[in-house]
Amino acid sequence: MLLVTTDFIPGVQFETLGIVTGSTVRAKHMGKDFM
């Protein structure tokens, strides 16, 4: 299985199965930033 974030890769044929959504949390220091 190949997971990509684009809908075109030169020279490769693949089938689009669906759209994936999500979210991320980025923090320099987990404890300090949330207190």
From TrEMBL:
Cited SUPFAM superfamilies: YbjQ-like
Top-level taxon of the source organism: Bacteria
Family: Belongs to the UPF0145 family.
Protein name: Heavy metal-binding domain-containing protein
